[in-house]
Design a protein that fits this description.
Layout lengths: L2 H151 L1 H8 L4 H8 L3 H15 L1
Length: 193
Amino acid sequence: MSPWIIIVILGACAIAYAFIMPRKDKVQQPSHQLVQEMESTLEHYMTEIEQDNDALIQRVAELKGEATAADHRMQSQLQELQQRLDQLEQQKVKTTELSTAENITGQRAEGLQAQSLMDSVRAETNQQIASASELQDNLQQEKDQKRESIKDRYTELFRLHDEGKSMDAISRQTGIQLGEVQLILQLAEREES
């Protein structure tokens, strides 16, 4: 590069620097004002945070007091329950001592009661066996009667069937539904076989 180009470039830089310098002062004045506004905003924010912190500390203290009161209530209830438990255990010991003495005399009486109960159970069992056998005999007699009674009950139906009438005709003449006629005839066939 030639020296005159270097001199021209240096001159241009000096002129540009001269223009920039006064602007820098003007730019610094608004930035100083901006810094003051930011400081005041931060101070305001810090006071708000301090107020919030104070309110939070107060609320924590209230909650701690409530928790302590609840803890005292629970402790008193626990003590009352412990006293009740002790009383119940003492009563249990007393009743077991009394019941042990009563059990010894009661066991003798229970032994006699058990013997009489066994005798009565045996008698009832024998009665039940006898009644069951009677019931079985009665059921057998009823079955025998039923076998005889189907044809006796529906004599007209079987007469028409023996004459060779169709199931529809039997149903119309007797007034019995077709499904019933079929069922009665099937039951009669089973009885015969």
